[in-house]
Specification:
This protein is an alpha/beta fold and 414 residues long.
Protein backbone atom coordinates (compact mmCIF):
# COMPACT_ATOMS: atom_id res chain seq x y z
CA UNK A 1 0.00 0.00 0.00
CA UNK A 2 1.33 3.40 -0.93
CA UNK A 3 1.96 5.91 1.87
CA UNK A 4 2.62 9.53 0.96
CA UNK A 5 6.04 10.89 1.75
CA UNK A 6 6.45 12.63 5.08
CA UNK A 7 7.10 16.34 5.24
CA UNK A 8 10.26 17.00 7.27
CA UNK A 9 10.96 20.47 8.68
CA UNK A 10 14.47 21.88 8.76
CA UNK A 11 15.14 20.27 12.16
CA UNK A 12 14.45 16.80 10.78
CA UNK A 13 11.23 16.17 12.70
CA UNK A 14 8.08 14.92 11.00
CA UNK A 15 4.75 16.68 10.71
CA UNK A 16 1.93 14.22 11.39
CA UNK A 17 -1.34 14.15 9.49
CA UNK A 18 -2.52 10.72 10.62
CA UNK A 19 -1.36 8.90 13.73
CA UNK A 20 -2.68 5.43 12.98
CA UNK A 21 -3.46 2.51 15.25
CA UNK A 22 -3.15 3.93 18.75
CA UNK A 23 -5.18 3.22 21.87
CA UNK A 24 -6.26 6.53 23.47
CA UNK A 25 -6.28 6.04 27.24
CA UNK A 26 -5.94 2.29 26.60
CA UNK A 27 -9.24 2.09 24.74
CA UNK A 28 -10.11 0.84 21.27
CA UNK A 29 -7.57 1.11 18.46
CA UNK A 30 -8.07 4.43 16.72
CA UNK A 31 -6.60 6.79 14.15
CA UNK A 32 -5.98 10.41 15.10
CA UNK A 33 -6.25 12.89 12.23
CA UNK A 34 -4.30 16.12 12.62
CA UNK A 35 -4.39 19.46 10.82
CA UNK A 36 -2.83 22.75 11.86
CA UNK A 37 -1.41 21.19 14.99
CA UNK A 38 -4.88 20.20 16.24
CA UNK A 39 -6.69 16.85 16.42
CA UNK A 40 -9.45 17.03 13.81
CA UNK A 41 -10.86 13.50 14.03
CA UNK A 42 -10.62 10.37 16.17
CA UNK A 43 -11.88 7.42 14.15
CA UNK A 44 -11.87 3.65 14.68
CA UNK A 45 -8.76 2.07 13.23
CA UNK A 46 -9.30 -0.06 10.14
CA UNK A 47 -6.14 -1.96 9.23
CA UNK A 48 -7.46 -2.46 5.72
CA UNK A 49 -8.42 1.16 5.04
CA UNK A 50 -6.25 2.85 2.39
CA UNK A 51 -4.35 5.94 3.43
CA UNK A 52 -4.34 7.47 -0.06
CA UNK A 53 -6.37 10.64 -0.11
CA UNK A 54 -6.27 11.05 3.68
CA UNK A 55 -2.86 12.67 3.87
CA UNK A 56 -2.54 16.11 2.31
CA UNK A 57 0.67 17.67 3.57
CA UNK A 58 2.21 15.50 6.20
CA UNK A 59 3.04 11.99 7.31
CA UNK A 60 1.32 8.80 8.29
CA UNK A 61 2.77 7.44 11.53
CA UNK A 62 2.10 3.85 12.54
CA UNK A 63 1.34 3.77 16.26
CA UNK A 64 1.58 -0.05 16.33
CA UNK A 65 -1.33 -0.33 18.76
CA UNK A 66 0.56 1.47 21.53
CA UNK A 67 -1.16 3.18 24.45
CA UNK A 68 -1.73 6.90 23.81
CA UNK A 69 -1.83 9.61 26.46
CA UNK A 70 -2.11 13.36 26.03
CA UNK A 71 1.17 15.25 26.21
CA UNK A 72 2.34 15.53 29.81
CA UNK A 73 1.95 18.93 31.49
CA UNK A 74 4.59 20.06 33.99
CA UNK A 75 2.51 22.41 36.12
CA UNK A 76 5.30 23.53 38.46
CA UNK A 77 8.82 23.83 37.09
CA UNK A 78 11.89 26.04 37.46
CA UNK A 79 13.57 25.56 34.08
CA UNK A 80 15.70 28.70 34.48
CA UNK A 81 17.62 27.16 37.41
CA UNK A 82 18.84 23.77 36.20
CA UNK A 83 22.45 22.71 35.64
CA UNK A 84 21.30 19.70 33.61
CA UNK A 85 23.94 18.79 31.02
CA UNK A 86 26.78 20.41 32.93
CA UNK A 87 29.43 18.58 34.99
CA UNK A 88 28.21 17.36 38.36
CA UNK A 89 27.63 20.10 40.93
CA UNK A 90 28.01 18.91 44.51
CA UNK A 91 25.37 19.93 47.02
CA UNK A 92 26.51 22.65 49.39
CA UNK A 93 25.32 25.37 51.69
CA UNK A 94 22.68 25.22 54.41
CA UNK A 95 19.32 23.49 54.32
CA UNK A 96 15.90 25.12 54.57
CA UNK A 97 14.35 27.72 52.29
CA UNK A 98 16.52 30.57 53.56
CA UNK A 99 19.69 28.51 53.31
CA UNK A 100 18.96 27.38 49.75
CA UNK A 101 18.16 30.94 48.65
CA UNK A 102 21.51 32.13 49.99
CA UNK A 103 23.44 29.27 48.38
CA UNK A 104 21.80 29.79 45.01
CA UNK A 105 22.48 33.52 45.03
CA UNK A 106 26.15 32.86 45.84
CA UNK A 107 26.79 30.32 43.06
CA UNK A 108 24.31 30.74 40.19
CA UNK A 109 26.54 33.11 38.18
CA UNK A 110 29.43 30.65 38.02
CA UNK A 111 27.06 28.07 36.46
CA UNK A 112 25.63 30.51 33.94
CA UNK A 113 22.21 30.48 35.60
CA UNK A 114 19.93 31.75 34.20
CA UNK A 115 21.19 30.87 30.71
CA UNK A 116 19.65 29.78 27.45
CA UNK A 117 21.94 26.76 27.10
CA UNK A 118 21.04 25.24 30.47
CA UNK A 119 17.36 25.98 29.99
CA UNK A 120 17.40 24.36 26.55
CA UNK A 121 19.09 21.28 28.01
CA UNK A 122 16.47 20.70 30.66
CA UNK A 123 13.59 21.44 28.30
CA UNK A 124 14.92 18.94 25.75
CA UNK A 125 15.14 16.28 28.45
CA UNK A 126 11.56 17.03 29.47
CA UNK A 127 10.38 16.76 25.86
CA UNK A 128 12.21 13.46 25.46
CA UNK A 129 10.16 11.99 28.27
CA UNK A 130 6.82 13.30 27.04
CA UNK A 131 6.30 16.78 28.44
CA UNK A 132 4.79 19.11 25.85
CA UNK A 133 3.63 22.03 28.02
CA UNK A 134 5.10 23.72 31.09
CA UNK A 135 4.18 26.31 33.67
CA UNK A 136 7.57 27.49 34.82
CA UNK A 137 8.60 29.90 37.52
CA UNK A 138 11.45 32.20 36.51
CA UNK A 139 13.35 34.13 39.15
CA UNK A 140 12.81 37.87 39.26
CA UNK A 141 15.06 39.68 41.70
CA UNK A 142 17.39 42.61 42.05
CA UNK A 143 20.35 40.56 40.80
CA UNK A 144 18.92 39.19 37.55
CA UNK A 145 16.05 41.59 36.91
CA UNK A 146 13.85 40.06 34.18
CA UNK A 147 16.68 38.14 32.51
CA UNK A 148 15.38 34.76 33.69
CA UNK A 149 12.06 35.32 31.93
CA UNK A 150 13.84 36.41 28.77
CA UNK A 151 16.00 33.27 28.88
CA UNK A 152 12.96 31.02 29.19
CA UNK A 153 11.19 32.73 26.29
CA UNK A 154 14.28 32.46 24.08
CA UNK A 155 14.80 28.77 24.87
CA UNK A 156 11.15 27.90 24.22
CA UNK A 157 11.22 29.80 20.92
CA UNK A 158 14.37 27.94 19.85
CA UNK A 159 12.49 24.65 20.20
CA UNK A 160 9.99 25.75 17.57
CA UNK A 161 6.78 24.56 19.23
CA UNK A 162 8.11 21.30 20.67
CA UNK A 163 7.02 22.62 24.04
CA UNK A 164 4.82 25.53 25.08
CA UNK A 165 5.31 27.47 28.28
CA UNK A 166 3.57 29.90 30.57
CA UNK A 167 5.79 31.93 32.89
CA UNK A 168 5.39 32.87 36.53
CA UNK A 169 7.50 35.87 37.53
CA UNK A 170 8.87 34.40 40.75
CA UNK A 171 10.32 36.41 43.68
CA UNK A 172 12.61 33.67 45.02
CA UNK A 173 14.40 36.07 47.38
CA UNK A 174 11.24 37.56 48.83
CA UNK A 175 8.95 40.43 47.90
CA UNK A 176 8.65 43.09 50.58
CA UNK A 177 11.98 42.37 52.26
CA UNK A 178 13.73 43.36 49.02
CA UNK A 179 12.57 46.87 48.07
CA UNK A 180 12.07 47.09 44.32
CA UNK A 181 10.90 43.50 43.77
CA UNK A 182 7.22 44.48 43.57
CA UNK A 183 8.14 46.92 40.82
CA UNK A 184 10.00 44.14 38.98
CA UNK A 185 7.01 41.84 39.28
CA UNK A 186 4.78 44.57 37.90
CA UNK A 187 7.19 45.14 35.02
CA UNK A 188 7.26 41.39 34.30
CA UNK A 189 3.47 41.26 34.17
CA UNK A 190 3.38 44.30 31.91
CA UNK A 191 5.92 42.60 29.62
CA UNK A 192 3.83 39.46 29.21
CA UNK A 193 4.44 37.09 32.13
CA UNK A 194 1.19 35.19 32.54
CA UNK A 195 1.40 35.04 36.34
CA UNK A 196 3.11 36.74 39.26
CA UNK A 197 4.43 34.57 42.06
CA UNK A 198 4.75 34.81 45.78
CA UNK A 199 6.75 32.97 48.43
CA UNK A 200 5.79 32.10 52.01
CA UNK A 201 4.29 35.51 52.84
CA UNK A 202 4.51 34.91 56.60
CA UNK A 203 7.94 33.34 57.01
CA UNK A 204 9.87 35.01 54.19
CA UNK A 205 8.50 38.56 54.26
CA UNK A 206 7.07 38.34 57.80
CA UNK A 207 4.09 40.23 56.43
CA UNK A 208 1.49 37.97 54.80
CA UNK A 209 -1.07 40.74 54.42
CA UNK A 210 1.44 43.08 52.80
CA UNK A 211 2.87 40.55 50.36
CA UNK A 212 -0.52 39.27 49.23
CA UNK A 213 -1.98 42.76 48.91
CA UNK A 214 0.96 43.72 46.67
CA UNK A 215 0.59 40.63 44.46
CA UNK A 216 -3.17 40.98 44.09
CA UNK A 217 -2.82 44.65 43.21
CA UNK A 218 -0.52 43.69 40.31
CA UNK A 219 -2.84 40.90 39.19
CA UNK A 220 -5.84 43.23 39.11
CA UNK A 221 -3.93 46.01 37.37
CA UNK A 222 -2.27 43.79 34.73
CA UNK A 223 -4.88 41.07 34.26
CA UNK A 224 -2.53 38.20 35.17
CA UNK A 225 -2.78 35.19 37.43
CA UNK A 226 -1.14 34.53 40.79
CA UNK A 227 0.89 31.45 41.77
CA UNK A 228 2.15 31.43 45.37
CA UNK A 229 4.76 29.02 46.76
CA UNK A 230 3.48 28.11 50.22
CA UNK A 231 5.67 25.77 52.24
CA UNK A 232 4.39 26.82 55.67
CA UNK A 233 2.51 23.99 57.32
CA UNK A 234 -0.29 23.54 59.81
CA UNK A 235 -2.36 26.45 61.02
CA UNK A 236 0.13 29.05 59.74
CA UNK A 237 -0.16 27.71 56.21
CA UNK A 238 -3.93 27.39 56.48
CA UNK A 239 -4.19 30.98 57.69
CA UNK A 240 -2.33 32.21 54.61
CA UNK A 241 -4.56 30.15 52.32
CA UNK A 242 -7.56 31.81 53.98
CA UNK A 243 -6.03 35.21 53.21
CA UNK A 244 -5.58 34.10 49.59
CA UNK A 245 -9.20 32.89 49.41
CA UNK A 246 -10.50 36.21 50.73
CA UNK A 247 -8.47 38.29 48.27
CA UNK A 248 -9.35 36.03 45.36
CA UNK A 249 -13.06 36.53 45.97
CA UNK A 250 -12.75 40.27 46.53
CA UNK A 251 -10.67 40.73 43.37
CA UNK A 252 -12.89 38.49 41.24
CA UNK A 253 -9.90 36.33 40.35
CA UNK A 254 -11.63 32.96 40.63
CA UNK A 255 -9.81 30.43 38.47
CA UNK A 256 -6.69 32.62 38.26
CA UNK A 257 -4.99 31.85 41.59
CA UNK A 258 -2.84 28.84 42.44
CA UNK A 259 -1.27 27.60 45.67
CA UNK A 260 1.91 25.62 45.02
CA UNK A 261 2.98 22.94 47.51
CA UNK A 262 0.37 23.87 50.13
CA UNK A 263 1.72 21.35 52.61
CA UNK A 264 -0.69 22.61 55.24
CA UNK A 265 -3.68 21.17 53.38
CA UNK A 266 -2.33 17.66 53.84
CA UNK A 267 -1.46 18.22 57.50
CA UNK A 268 -4.73 19.51 58.91
CA UNK A 269 -7.19 17.43 60.88
CA UNK A 270 -9.99 16.18 58.65
CA UNK A 271 -12.75 18.60 59.80
CA UNK A 272 -10.49 21.64 59.42
CA UNK A 273 -9.15 20.29 56.14
CA UNK A 274 -12.64 19.76 54.73
CA UNK A 275 -13.64 23.31 55.61
CA UNK A 276 -10.56 24.80 53.98
CA UNK A 277 -10.81 22.65 50.85
CA UNK A 278 -14.47 23.60 50.39
CA UNK A 279 -13.59 27.28 50.65
CA UNK A 280 -10.79 26.87 48.10
CA UNK A 281 -13.23 25.24 45.70
CA UNK A 282 -15.74 28.06 46.10
CA UNK A 283 -12.99 30.57 45.30
CA UNK A 284 -11.82 28.62 42.24
CA UNK A 285 -8.32 28.25 43.67
CA UNK A 286 -6.10 25.52 42.21
CA UNK A 287 -3.15 23.64 43.65
CA UNK A 288 0.09 22.24 42.29
CA UNK A 289 2.18 19.57 43.95
CA UNK A 290 5.61 18.08 43.30
CA UNK A 291 4.76 14.90 45.26
CA UNK A 292 7.71 15.27 47.64
CA UNK A 293 8.85 12.13 49.44
CA UNK A 294 7.98 12.29 53.13
CA UNK A 295 5.35 15.02 52.85
CA UNK A 296 1.80 14.55 54.04
CA UNK A 297 -0.12 13.65 50.88
CA UNK A 298 -2.70 16.07 49.60
CA UNK A 299 -6.30 14.80 49.87
CA UNK A 300 -6.63 14.43 46.09
CA UNK A 301 -10.12 12.94 46.12
CA UNK A 302 -11.46 15.58 48.50
CA UNK A 303 -9.87 18.34 46.42
CA UNK A 304 -11.39 16.93 43.22
CA UNK A 305 -14.83 16.61 44.84
CA UNK A 306 -14.62 20.25 45.97
CA UNK A 307 -13.69 21.42 42.48
CA UNK A 308 -10.07 22.23 43.33
CA UNK A 309 -7.97 21.33 40.28
CA UNK A 310 -4.55 19.84 41.06
CA UNK A 311 -1.51 19.88 38.78
CA UNK A 312 1.73 17.94 39.07
CA UNK A 313 5.19 19.40 38.54
CA UNK A 314 8.84 18.52 38.81
CA UNK A 315 9.90 21.57 40.85
CA UNK A 316 13.63 22.14 40.28
CA UNK A 317 15.61 19.62 38.22
CA UNK A 318 19.27 19.21 39.21
CA UNK A 319 19.76 22.71 40.52
CA UNK A 320 21.42 24.46 43.44
CA UNK A 321 18.51 23.50 45.65
CA UNK A 322 18.84 19.76 45.09
CA UNK A 323 20.79 17.33 42.88
CA UNK A 324 17.64 15.27 42.31
CA UNK A 325 15.17 15.38 39.44
CA UNK A 326 15.12 14.06 35.88
CA UNK A 327 12.27 15.97 34.25
CA UNK A 328 10.38 12.69 33.69
CA UNK A 329 6.83 13.59 34.63
CA UNK A 330 5.48 10.08 34.08
CA UNK A 331 7.98 8.72 36.61
CA UNK A 332 6.87 11.50 38.95
CA UNK A 333 3.28 10.36 38.40
CA UNK A 334 4.34 6.98 39.78
CA UNK A 335 5.67 8.81 42.85
CA UNK A 336 2.45 10.81 43.23
CA UNK A 337 0.39 7.61 43.09
CA UNK A 338 2.55 5.89 45.70
CA UNK A 339 2.58 8.92 47.99
CA UNK A 340 -1.22 9.06 47.72
CA UNK A 341 -1.65 5.37 48.47
CA UNK A 342 -3.22 4.73 45.06
CA UNK A 343 -3.67 1.07 44.13
CA UNK A 344 -7.06 0.76 42.44
CA UNK A 345 -7.14 1.16 38.67
CA UNK A 346 -9.43 4.18 38.78
CA UNK A 347 -7.06 5.95 41.16
CA UNK A 348 -4.05 5.25 38.95
CA UNK A 349 -5.97 6.69 35.99
CA UNK A 350 -6.71 9.76 38.13
CA UNK A 351 -2.96 10.19 38.68
CA UNK A 352 -2.35 10.01 34.93
CA UNK A 353 -5.05 12.59 34.27
CA UNK A 354 -3.53 14.95 36.86
CA UNK A 355 -0.27 14.79 34.92
CA UNK A 356 -1.87 15.32 31.51
CA UNK A 357 -5.45 16.03 30.44
CA UNK A 358 -6.65 17.69 33.64
CA UNK A 359 -3.61 19.97 33.76
CA UNK A 360 -4.39 21.89 30.58
CA UNK A 361 -5.80 24.75 32.63
CA UNK A 362 -2.36 25.33 34.17
CA UNK A 363 -0.96 26.23 30.74
CA UNK A 364 -3.93 28.19 29.44
CA UNK A 365 -5.65 25.39 27.52
CA UNK A 366 -9.41 24.95 27.58
CA UNK A 367 -8.96 21.37 26.37
CA UNK A 368 -5.91 19.12 26.52
CA UNK A 369 -6.89 15.56 25.71
CA UNK A 370 -7.08 13.04 22.89
CA UNK A 371 -10.24 14.58 21.50
CA UNK A 372 -11.26 16.68 18.51
CA UNK A 373 -10.22 20.30 18.94
CA UNK A 374 -7.36 19.60 21.34
CA UNK A 375 -3.73 20.37 20.51
CA UNK A 376 -2.16 17.35 18.83
CA UNK A 377 0.08 16.57 21.79
CA UNK A 378 0.36 12.79 22.13
CA UNK A 379 2.64 10.40 24.00
CA UNK A 380 2.85 6.73 23.02
CA UNK A 381 4.06 4.07 25.45
CA UNK A 382 4.21 0.29 25.30
CA UNK A 383 1.83 -0.47 28.14
CA UNK A 384 -1.18 -2.74 28.58
CA UNK A 385 -3.34 0.00 30.07
CA UNK A 386 -3.08 3.31 31.92
CA UNK A 387 -2.48 1.78 35.37
CA UNK A 388 0.38 -0.25 33.87
CA UNK A 389 1.85 2.93 32.35
CA UNK A 390 1.63 4.78 35.67
CA UNK A 391 3.20 1.98 37.68
CA UNK A 392 6.07 1.25 35.24
CA UNK A 393 6.63 4.62 33.52
CA UNK A 394 7.95 2.83 30.41
CA UNK A 395 10.12 4.56 27.85
CA UNK A 396 8.26 6.99 25.62
CA UNK A 397 8.08 5.40 22.16
CA UNK A 398 6.86 8.57 20.45
CA UNK A 399 6.19 12.15 21.51
CA UNK A 400 4.11 14.42 19.30
CA UNK A 401 3.76 18.13 20.07
CA UNK A 402 1.45 20.30 18.01
CA UNK A 403 1.24 17.59 15.39
CA UNK A 404 5.01 17.25 15.09
CA UNK A 405 7.13 14.28 16.15
CA UNK A 406 9.62 15.69 18.67
CA UNK A 407 10.98 12.50 20.26
CA UNK A 408 11.14 8.87 19.20
CA UNK A 409 12.29 5.77 21.09
CA UNK A 410 13.74 7.81 23.91
CA UNK A 411 15.68 10.20 21.66
CA UNK A 412 14.76 13.89 21.46
CA UNK A 413 14.67 15.27 17.91
CA UNK A 414 14.79 19.02 18.62
Amino acid sequence: MHSPAMHSPADGTTTVTVLRDVRPWGGARSDLHVAGGVITAVVPHDANAPTDGVVVDGGVIDGRGLLALPGLVNAHAHVDKSWWGKPWVSYGGEGGVQGRIAHERAHRDELGIPGVDVTLAVLRESIRTGTTAVRTHADVDLGVGLRGIEVVREAVAALGGAVTAQVVAFPQDGVLRRPGVLDLLDAAAAAGAEHVGGLDPATIDRDPVGQLDGLFAIAERRGVGIDVHLHDGGDLGAFQIELIIDRTLRAGLQGRVNVAHGFAVGQLAVPRQAELVAAMGEAGITMTTVAPIGAAPLPLHALRDAGVAVGLGTDGIRDLWSPYGTGDLLALTTQLARLSGFRYDEDLVTAARIASADAGRFVGRAVHDLVVGAPADVVLVDAENVPDAVVRAPRRALVVAGGRVVARDGEVLV
